[in-house]
Amino acid sequence: MFKRISVLALSSTLLLSACTGTPTGITATANPTTVSSGGTSTLSATLTGTGSFNIGVGWEIKSGGGSLSKNYDGSTVTYTAPTVTANTTVQINAYASAAPNQVSQVLTLTVQP
Question: Domain range holding 66?
Answer without folding.
Answer: 22-112
